[in-house]
Automatic annotation (TrEMBL), chains A, B, C, D, E, F:
One of its GO terms (molecular function) is hydantoin racemase activity. It comes from Azospirillum cavernae. Its EC number is 5.1.99.5. The lineage of its organism: Bacteria, Pseudomonadati, Pseudomonadota, Alphaproteobacteria, Rhodospirillales. It catalyses: D-5-benzylhydantoin = L-5-benzylhydantoin; D-5-isobutylhydantoin = L-5-isobutylhydantoin; a D-5-monosubstituted hydantoin = a L-5-monosubstituted hydantoin. Pfam families: Asp_Glu_race (PF01177). It comes from the Bacteria. Belongs to the HyuE racemase family. This is Hydantoin racemase.
Length: 249, 249, 249, 249, 249, 249
């Protein structure tokens, strides 16, 4: 099967690292198609970047699904590889296969491994959005979100001190909050999970890997988004201006 | 003061009706600037339409604020006139003045008038999104959302039977759910509140009017969105492609 | 329009300061009638004072509404100017116009300006009552209540050190709790909001001003308390003894 | 030991029936002092009656405690025998011994006997207040409140049809809501519990009896209200007017 | 009446101390039958011990109820004297009389004495189980659970330093968490409540005593577990192997 | 990899059907070891059966893990194939690999496919236990549990009418509760998911398949239960009597 992994920002080096993490996680028969939109923000740090990342994300999903279907190899499902689960609801309305966000994937996975968990993300400005996701996913009583005050793209720079700040916050999560496991709160941290797990002696969950496994599972069971209720296919209607091409048909 | 009221869909006739309702509600000294984006969906019915309405909405807010500031008459604040509170978080990050969504405005207002209330919206597919907003606003235990199965634009057509279906659902909300007041769950219903209130003998709250009053209040008190935390101004960064013009500076 | 602002304690100097804050907030066409009961506690610090403040409050509301109606200038609505929202439910049962408490007004207002907020009140003994209000208003997950350990009437004495203790607690709310804005948890702090907002660079919400704006808004829209359900007019019945005059008719 | 049972309304015949139910429930060594205030409403039906019942209730508790202490036989504790738990918080601030409301007593007791329970009260206007109590006591997810539309004092009149309406609502609670036991939602129903339990084959809990047993238990263990925090003794201060006699010393 | 108090671990010295605490709490006419199973763990420290304590507990309840019934002196009810409320649901399915766990008893009792309370238990590994019970009993918003890091059986050894660690954690609960009263989170602490209450000047609740009083109350009122729904008597069926004797008939 | 699937009841025919469903779901490289305990109840219908199923379940897990480890082919993880998630916490304390219950697996899976879902289980007496699991897993606001009143083992008898009753309840879940997908609430329904999904046109989730995929995913990522906190390995101690063999070492 082939799984689409969309990094909703436009930074290709980050897409490459996300793709590598996804491939590491994928089962032998799974191919990973890691992409990013041609339009939108270079990184997603807060609600505004989030909102403007969605059109590119949706276009990417629609186009890749159409191409794969034409090629006779329909996509098995989609991973949205931004920890804000950007555009998840809209994507579920239009995608043929199941769609999983890396925040929901990571939180669900952590909830199978211990009673409570800590989420360590990049910037304080992202914390409210993640707390709201935790509430939406029924996890608000089980986790506390902390920020390491590391800009997203600093994770790619070994001289930025980002890893040290991340490790300090993991330590506080375990010691002060009583977390039993850790969730890495940014797609850009995907490659760090294994080493941090060994260092701290607790499960450390990366959402990209977790989401790939969930999509593999859903696809193998033939499960797709319900088209009854909130995720029904969009009604056909006119869209105007620059976004006219997005009009549902 | 001048308040920007943005209808985030592109249907000008609906913008006109929303503008009229806003003007009806406005205080003597308040001017209403009712606009809609040049790009995006003709109506908002579900998560997909929601997501694609946001860029146009944000562009409209940014542009109108800039124009007003240049003219020396800065906007007092903004109302987002779609009951899904489309783009509310992103708008708060960039707008100078306070931003209020009509769903939050209507729910807050209803909560001041009675113990529990019913929300009557257009289509079943919109119910999950409104239930999630009710949870986010702390109102989930106080309201039940019902759909009249009326397409948004049918509200403009007197022969569509839309009003009858809406009235039937209000009656069920009062009789079966024990609602003490009613919230109209679509900006396109703004002009119906007064007549329905008289007919049913309970407060019927329209979000457009409610939001105009809240923005007037915030502006008069000099209160604006906190720039500490989740609504901090977006960090400057590159945006690519069709959306390059949205890049924060 | 004329708005009744009732300080439910009997300290006239505090009523004067509350009235001044209300007038500062009021729109050009709004008159403020600031009063306090002739009977009851000199300040409200805990559940016992709260309970005994209610009869005086209700008498004041009933009498002022009757007088205004007789004079042909019915009151537009009522603000209860004690942060415990003393007697709010009972007042809604008997008042003709809408009734708003300053705690609910301040919390609603703060929720429009940021994701989470801190409440800073006077005494630790008042904290449980405010936490319960936060739960009732659906705000428990968004705020933390702190006490500055300042007696209510000490706020009137510039030599009491009250302001310093209040400022220290605001600082802790921002730094330790991650609050994005601040709510002043006592009617006696109404005149401090603006200066504290400038000092700390975040919105600081005073409930008296917030409630005046909400009542102005409700009144302008013709919205009054629902008489269906919990706020129905009291059933006529005999009241005995000292309280016989309160019997509903 | 002697337990004070206060019916907070002024109807002596109802006090007599409450006293009888309390005596039925009391242990051999327990004396019941069943009283009602000299001032206040003849029955409690809604928030307004509630609020005006409190001064008489508090006066009764304070006076009876003082008399008993003078007589060298201090009261063991107090039951507030109105299902709205009227004045419970204020009473805890001033009473020497523990204070238990019959709503909290009945809900706690029912929660020991089954997973979910139904509450059947008198009038629809009382339902919102009881739902709020259920939330406060952590029972909102376990119960549903129904009204039999029976005025409180009709329970004393065998020709009123009140019992039939009550039984019909119990049946609906079991059949439609899946209740596993029943709570009688009015002190005036205290004498009906046993017969209804036999008729319906499920536990039927009366709050007066339940509260008497809880106070007996607390008193026997030497447990009293904590004086740390919200229930600290009221601070001494002046009270004005008709309520001057209530001033804490 | 006779109340069965089952210590679900197999340590007879702890059973003796629990029995003594129960007898101290019991009313003059109440006999306490304090027992422990012949099979299962010597102490209960975590989920695994919990699960393996249940068969012995159930056997003890069934056997003691049968013996008492045969002797013509049926048991009035049962206390499960482990703070994890081990086997409570299963016991309610088979016991004739009411069954109360000491955690639910202590939490209910504490909730009658103050607004919030602290729970101090033995080991960190038991904290998640107690937090889950607090959520189940509707008390999650009112308490915080702390561990003194004291093994259960160390409570029997005066040289272990256990008491000092317990007192330190009580102090933190009061000072840092704002607890208004304290719940002792282990049956082995039953004899410490009175002295700790005097030392700290707040109510300190022991679950064994609290549960004895609740069972006395339920029994006196003739209230037993509802047999409608989740606590219906087990359906007759075959049980295999070592546990064949547990098969319901 | 090899996954242990434990049916915690002793009915071998049901184990066979569960094993078949697990094998259908398993990836090419996954072997399924489907077993049931030698001791305990023939079916699990309510809390009592649940509790007595746990020792056999734990023995099976411990023995199978030990055997596999000795054979040099350690188990990848364990599925507990009873919808009550019987013994899940205890199993996590002792198992080497991850452990997943079929209720949590099914609910998590359903939450990825739609906004709300219906759970259809066997008997009304099992509903409270499943509602409590839904609350524990953060899903209480998203699902409603219904019982088809079908005994567990009747699912194996095509003449029992069980399937018809199950289908009727699914229809009610979709029509009356607005469910967007369906969860089958019993391991014995595992083979029905695909056909019911086609019939009703919505995703129908079987927990056995869902749990197999989750364990495959966790194992592939090297994730195991956290040993910090509630799932720490049991402390070594004596166990007495018939259960002596269960003592942790």
């Amino acid at each position: 099967m082939e799984i689409l992994v969309v990094n909703p920002n436009t930074t290709a080096s980050m897409t490459a690292r996300i793709g590598a993490a996804a491939r590491d996680a994928a089962a032998p028969g799974t191919r990973i198609l890691a992409v990013n939109p041609a339009m939108g923000p270079a990184s997603i740090e807060g609600y505004y970047d989030e909102a403007l990342a969605v059109p590119g994300l949706l276009e990417e999903i629609t186009r890749r699904e159409r191409e794969a279907a034409r090629a006779g190899t329909p996509l098995a499902g989609t991973v949205i590889a931004c920890f804000d689960d950007v555009g998840l609801d809209a994507a579920r309305c239009v995608a043929r296969g199941p769609v999983v966000g890396i925040c929901e994937a990571a939180m669900q996975t952590a909830s199978l491994l211990g009673g409570s968990f800590g989420v360590v993300t990049t910037l304080q400005r992202s914390v409210p959005a993640l707390e709201r996701l935790a509430q939406r996913y029924g996890m608000a009583g089980r986790c506390r979100v902390r920020a390491a005050e590391v800009p997203v793209l600093a994770l790619e720079d070994p001289t930025s001190g980002a890893l040290e700040r991340l490790r300090a916050e993991i330590a506080r999560s375990l010691d002060e909050d009583g977390a039993e496991s850790i969730v890495l709160g940014c797609a850009g941290m995907a490659d760090l999970a294994r080493a941090l797990s060994q260092e701290f002696g607790v499960p450390v969950v990366d959402g990209v890997s977790a989401a790939v496994k969930l999509v593999e599972g859903l696809a193998a069971l033939g499960l797709r988004t319900s088209k009854r209720g909130g995720y029904a296919h969009p009604l056909p209607k006119a869209y105007a201006g620059m976004l006219a091409g997005f009009a549902p048909v």
